[in-house]
DNA sequence: GGCGGTAGTTTTGTCGATAAAAACTCTCCC
DNA sequence: GGGAGAGTTTTTATCGACAAAACTACCGCC
C-alpha cells in the first residue's frame, strides 16, 4: 500500500521475515481499509492483542504508525480509534487531490521525458487490459486492477520530478481507496472509467496540459460524487456513546 | 511544531501532563531539528533511553511517530537513524513546495473570503513587527519570529479550503525549517525577507494570483539557493563506516 | 597476505507485569 | 426522580527482562 514510502521500501523488499509490528500494521491497515473496524470505532489494545496474536508493544507501534498515516486517530491517555470517514472528509480529500494532482500533472507534462511518456503508456495499457471486477457478473474488487490503477495514476504524476510531492499523492490515493472500499459496489458498471483513463492518458502524452488537468479533475470529482451518493449511511458512524 | 496535525491538537491543548512518549517525541524532534543528532546518525535505543530518561517503549513509540513524519528513518531489525538532509533532498523539497504551495495560494486567492484576507493581513503584521534575530548584533534564532513566520505562510494558503492540503503544507514547512536550522546563521542580514513577505502579502490580498505565486516561488527558491550555498559540507554526512 | 567462517558482543524486537488514568456503576442524598 | 460522588472495573502507558537478529573481531585456512 505505502510502497512509495521511502522508509519501508527497501526493508520490505529484502526482508523475508518482516517484524511482527510491521505484519500487524499491514494487516490492520487492510482491515481498516476494508471496513472490518468501522470508522470512529475504538481500537482497544487488548482486543487487538487477541485478534492479531501479538503483545502490546507491536500493536501499539502499528497503531502509532497508522496514526501518523492518518488512518487511525490517537488521543493521549484515551486510546486509539479508527479515523472518521464522513462526507466532509471525502469532500476535503477530493478538493486536495484536485489541487495537488493537477499541479503535479501540469509539471509532469511540462517536464516529463521520453521514459515518463513510455511509463504512462505502458501503465495505462496494463490497466486497460485488466478487468475491474474479479467477477464478471457482479462487482468484486480485483486486487490486480487496484494495483494497476494506482500505478497508472502515479505514473501520470511521476514526471514532475519531486519525490516528496509524489509520496503525498500516493498517500492521498490510499486515503481515497479507503472511501472506495467503505462504499463497496460503487458505480459499476454504470460508469466507463476505462474511457476516462484513456482520455487522460492520451491528453497527457499529447502534452495537452489544460485538457489533461480538466479530465483528471473531472475524473476525481465524479468519483467523489458517486461515493458520497452511494454511502450516505456512513456519514457519522462515530456516536460511540457520549458521556450522558 | 506539528500543531496542525489533527491527532495531536486537541490532546495537547487540554492535557496538562502529556504522555511520556509525547514528551520524548517533542524533545527528540527539537533535537533533530536543531542538529543535536546529526543527519544520517544512528539513534540507538539505549543511548536515547539514557538521554531522555525513559524506558524503551516510549522511546520506540516516539521514534515511530517521527519516522512516519519523515524526520527519522527506520530500517526493520536494524534500528533507527536520523533522516538524511542532503542537497538533493533540499532541491526536492523546494520543488515540491513551489508546486504545491503555488497551487494552494492560487486557490486561496480565488476562494478566500474576508476572514482569510484579514488573517493574512494580521499574521503578516505580527511577522513584520517581530525581529528575525533574538540578538540585534548577530543571528540568533528567534522562536517568536519562527512562529509568526509559520503562521503567516499558512495563513496565505488557508483560504484554499482543503484541510488535508494545508496539513501537508505545514509538514513541508517543518521539513524546510530543519534545513534552516542545520545551516545556521544563514543569509542574515544580506537578504531582506521582510520585503519579500510584504510583497507576497500585498499581492495575495490584492488578488493578483500570478504575481503572488511568482513572488512566493521566488521566495522559496531564493531560500533554497542560500541554504545549499551556505551548507555544502552537510551534503553526505551519512558515511557511518562502510563495511570495509 | 588476503579471505571466509565463527564465536562473542551489541542492539533490536517482543513479552508479561504493574502503576496510573479514565470509564463505568452503583448508591446515597436532595 | 435526578444528580453528585465514591468505589470498582476496564484500559492505557510504562517498565524491566528476554530471545532473536545483526554487527564485530578474531582466528584459521588457502
Quick overview of this protein structure:
Chain A is mainly α and about 240 residues long. Chain A has ten helices and three strands; from the N terminus they run H-H-E-H-H-E-E-H-H-H-H-H-H.
Report how far the terminal alpha carbons of chain A are from each other. 40 Å
The residue-averaged pLDDT of chain A reads 86
Specify the CATH architecture of the largest domain in chain A.
Up-down Bundle
Q: Which homologous superfamily in CATH is the superfamily of the largest domain in chain A?
A: GntR ligand-binding domain-like
Range of strand content of chain A: under 5%
Shape of chain A: globular
How are the SSEs ordered, and which strands pair?
2 copies of one chain form a homodimer.
Chain A: H1 9-14, H2 20-33, E1 42-43, H3 45-52, H4 56-69, E2 72-74, E3 80-82, H5 87-111, H6 114-128, H7 143-157, H8 163-182, H9 193-205, H10 209-230
Antiparallel strand pairs in A: 1-3, 2-3
Helix pairs in contact in A: 2-4, 5-8, 5-10, 6-7, 6-9, 9-10
The first copy, chain A, binds a DNA duplex (30 and 30 nucleotides) through helix 4.
Structural overview:
The structure is a homodimer of 244-residue chains. Chain A has 244 residues and is mainly α. Chain A folds into two domains: 9-82, Winged helix-like DNA-binding domain superfamily/Winged helix DNA-binding domain (Arc Repressor Mutant, subunit A, Orthogonal Bundle), CATH 1.10.10; 87-232, Four Helix Bundle (Hemerythrin (Met), subunit A), CATH 1.20.120. The first copy, chain A, contains ten helices and three strands; from the N terminus they run H-H-E-H-H-E-E-H-H-H-H-H-H. Chain A has helices spanning 9-14, 20-33, 45-52, 56-69, 87-111, 114-128, 143-157, 163-182, 193-205, 209-230; strands spanning 42-43, 72-74, 80-82. Chain A has a three-stranded antiparallel sheet with strand order 1-3-2. In chain A, helix 2 (20-33) packs across helix 4 (56-69), helix 5 (87-111) runs antiparallel to helix 10 (209-230) and helix 9 (193-205) packs antiparallel against helix 10 (209-230). The first copy, chain A, is globular, with a radius of gyration of 19 Å. The model of chain A is unreliable at 1-14 and 232-244 (pLDDT under 50). The first copy, chain A, binds a DNA duplex (30 and 30 nucleotides) through residues 19-21, 44-46, 54-58, 60-61, 76-79, 243. Chains A, B: InterPro entries: GntR_C (IPR011711), TF_FadR/GntR_C (IPR008920), Tscrpt_reg_HTH_GntR (IPR000524), WH-like_DNA-bd_sf (IPR036388), WH_DNA-bd_sf (IPR036390).
Amino acid at each position: 500500500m505505502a510502497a512509495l514510502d521511502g522508509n519501508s521500501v527497501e526493508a520490505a523488499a529484502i526482508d523475508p521475515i518482516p517484524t511482527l509490528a510491521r505484519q500487524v500494521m499491514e494487516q490492520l491497515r487492510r482491515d481498516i481499509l476494508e471496513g472490518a473496524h468501522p470508522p470512529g470505532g475504538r481500537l482497544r489494545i487488548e482486543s487487538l492483542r487477541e485478534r492479531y496474536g501479538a503483545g502490546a508493544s507491536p500493536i501499539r507501534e502499528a497503531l502509532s504508525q497508522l496514526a501518523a498515516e492518518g488512518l487511525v486517530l490517537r488521543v493521549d491517555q484515551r486510546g486509539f480509534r479508527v479515523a472518521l470517514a464522513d462526507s466532509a472528509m471525502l469532500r476535503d480529500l477530493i478538493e486536495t487531490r484536485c489541487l495537488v494532482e493537477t499541479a503535479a500533472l501540469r509539471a509532469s507534462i511540462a517536464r516529463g521525458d521520453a521514459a515518463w511518456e513510455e511509463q504512462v503508456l505502458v501503465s495505462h495499457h496494463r490497466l486497460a487490459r485488466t478487468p475491474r471486477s474479479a467477477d464478471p457478473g457482479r462487482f468484486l474488487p480485483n486486487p490486480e486492477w487496484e494495483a494497476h490503477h494506482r500505478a497508472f495514476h502515479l505514473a501520470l504524476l511521476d514526471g514532475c520530478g519531486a519525490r516528496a510531492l509524489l509520496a503525498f499523492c500516493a498517500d492521498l490515493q490510499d486515503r481515497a481507496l479507503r472511501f472506495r472500499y467503505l462504499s463497496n459496489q460503487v458505480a459499476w458498471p454504470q460508469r466507463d472509467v476505462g474511457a476516462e483513463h484513456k482520455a487522460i492518458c492520451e491528453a497527457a502524452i499529447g502534452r495537452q496540459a489544460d485538457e489533461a488537468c480538466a479530465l483528471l479533475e473531472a475524473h476525481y470529482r465524479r468519483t467523489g460524487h458517486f461515493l458520497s451518493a452511494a454511502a450516505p449511511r456512513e456519514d457519522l458512524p462515530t456516536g460511540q456513546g457520549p458521556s450522558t
